Every structure is written in structure tokens, then in C-alpha cells.
Amino acid sequence: MIPKTMKALVAYGKHDYKLETNYPVPECGPDDILIKTEGCGICAGDLKCMHGAERFWGNETEPSWVKPPFIPGHEFLGRIVAVGENVTEYKLGERITADQIVPCGECRFCKSGRYWMCQPHATFGFQAANNGGMAEYVRYPKTAVLHRVPEDMPLEKALLVEPYACSKHCVDRAQITNEDVVVISGAGTLGLGMVTYARMKNPAKLIVLDMMDSRLEKAKVERQSLREAVKAAEVQIASKEKQREENARFLERALASLETSRKEYEQGEVRLARTDEESKSLRLELQQARKLDVQLESALKARVRCAHHAGLVRYRRRQGAGCAWLPPVSLLLPLCY
Q1: What's the longest Cα–Cα distance across the chain?
Q2: What proportion of the chain, given as a percentage, has pLDDT over 90?
Q3: DSSP sequence for 130-154
Q4: N or C terminus of the chain with fewer C-beta within 10 Å?
Q5: Residues ≥6 apart with Cβ < 8 Å to 86
């Protein structure tokens, strides 16, 4: 059940930030997503805005970029508690976060795929229309660039997704090669993210500047950790290559065995066909033999009848002459069958 009000930190003006305990929960429109905030990081930009920096609030010559009243915070994530009727890609309960910028989708930069240069440049946590994560509930509009967050990722790490994405974006735009000397000024959260990702580009030299020795030590640790990670990755790659070769050999053996089985099957088919032909030939010979046997039997019976008839004739003639004569036994025997 979504309440009607919530707790939120609201910026009403320069140096005028208040904790509201009954602030209206944003409404979820047909194209919107509403999340219950899990956590929100504090960016240096949030602090500068709170302290009244002119780049946010403007001055005599520049208009204010922020549009109060607004809820600060752009490094946040949460779980979906409501979706608009037109939303089909996300469902209730999913853990998501969003890019800091809310692209308009209409300007030439958005239409060319470079939404980070969107001309209106609406941003979460600085305008009333796009309130940030320092509240219990946040509304994601239709054009928000959303990302799913792994369920097993701890909150402390999940809150670094947005700032480290900024670090990666910065290094990507620099187009670093292995011939470049790279200087990163500042070893804070984003700076350390840049150090880690820039080292992956393998520049000729990487220089990190900072006023605090503790941060520079972290940069060195990042470098050492990266080297260890690279070594571990190399070992893993070598292991995978070995496994791939073993799998390839197994596949070759399996294919060879399959080919042998196929040949044996084909030979069996040939032998079976040959056996069928031989069986047909034997059946034909047997039929012919049976026909011949019937013919021989018929001929033999006919011969016996003729011989018996001839014997009876001779017998009667001799009887008439006063002589007694019987047919031979060989002629009488067939008549018994």
C-alpha cells in the first residue's frame, strides 16, 4: 500500500533546505515508474548546491539552473512499487537505478544518440519536475534511462553505480591510447574511478594529482589492485584457453567417433540390403522348387496310374488264358499313399 505522504528533504531556495515529514508522494502516470528509495548517495554537487554555488543558483548575469522547490539527490536506487499502464519492460519488485540526466528525447543530441548532451538537460535532484532520491519515493518519467541492479549487490556498492558510470563516461570520451600521458586532477570517488578505468586503457603514463596524501595512497592501491586483477584475469584467461583446447580435442574425438559410427551404419545398411536381395533370391528359388516338386508329384502319379492300368490289362488277359498274374509290388505300393 503506497501512502499519500512521505518524508523528504526539500530545497526551497539557496540555504533553505528542510526535512518534510508529510510531503506528497509523487503520482505514477501511465508512462511512469514509482520506486521506494533504498538509498541515496551525497555528491559534491549536492553540497555545492546546498551552500549556494552560483553555477546552480545563478547570479546577476546568469539565470538560476535549479528550479525549486526540489528534492536533492541523483545517486539513488530503489524497488519498483508502481508502474504505469503503458510500462511493459519493468515489473513490481525489481531493483533499479537511473542515469542522472533525464533526456528530452526530442533535441538533436537525443535523436543522434548523444543524450548526455541533451539541450534542456533536465537532471534528477535539481528541478521540481524531476525530484531526487532524498525522499522515500521517487518517480521515474518515461524518458529516464533505467538500469537493473543485481539483487546480490550490497547497497554500499550499488550506490556507486552512478558516480562510477560518470567516471567511465569521462574516460571513454577522452579516447585514451597507449601513447598518451594522462593526468587526472583529483582522487576523490570519481577520480579513483577514473584512475581504475584509465589504467585499463594502458596509457604510456598515468599521473594523479590531489592535495590529500591519503587520497593519493588510495590511487596507488587502486593501481596495485588493478595489477593484481590483471594478473588474476590473465591466469583465468589462460585457464579458459586450456579448457577451450581440451574441449576442442574432445569435440574432435567425438566427431571422429561419430564419423566411424556413421560409416559402420552405412556398411550395415549395405549388408542388410544385400541380405534382403539374397533372401528374395532364396524365396524365389524355393517357390520354383515347390512348383517343380508339385509338377514331379503330378507326373509320378500319372505314371503310376498308367502302369497300374497296363498291369491290370495283362492280368485279365492271362486270366482268360488260364494263368494267374498279380501286379508287381512296386506298382501297388504307390497306390497306398
Answers
A1: 171
A2: 61
A3: B--SSBSEEEE-TT--EEE--TTS-
A4: N
A5: 30, 31
Q: Which three cell numbers stand for residue 192?
A: 579513483
Inter-residue contact 5 to 135 (CB < 8 Å): no
Which residues contact residue 155 at a Cβ distance below 8 angstroms, ignoring those fewer than 6 apart? 38, 39
d(CA 120, CA 272): 80
Q: Which residue has the cell 549395405?
A: 270
56: part of which helix (H) or strand (E)? helix 54-57
Indicate whether 320 pLDDT > 80: no
Question: Tell me: the pLDDT tens digits for 296-311?
Answer: 878 777 777 777 666 6
- pTM of this prediction? 0.65
Residues of the chain above pLDDT 70, percent: 88
- Strand 205-209 and strand 181-185: pairing? parallel
* In contact, 196 and 222? CB cutoff 8 Å: yes
CA–CA dist 199, 191 (Å, integer): 12
Three cell numbers, residue 78: 530503489
Tell me which residue of 108, 136, 144, 103 sits closest to 120, measured CA to CA: 103
Left, alpha or beta for 80 (phi > 0: left; psi -120 to 50: alpha)? beta
Instruction: Using pLDDT thresholds of 50, 70 and 90, give the confidence band for residue 45.
Output: very high
Q: What cell does 94 get?
A: 525489481
Which of 163, 137, 134 is closest to 44 using CA atoms? 163
Neighbouring-strand partners of residue 77: 39, 97
Residue 168 has pLDDT above 90, yes or no: yes
CA distance 132 to 162: 13
pLDDT surpasses 90 at 162 = yes
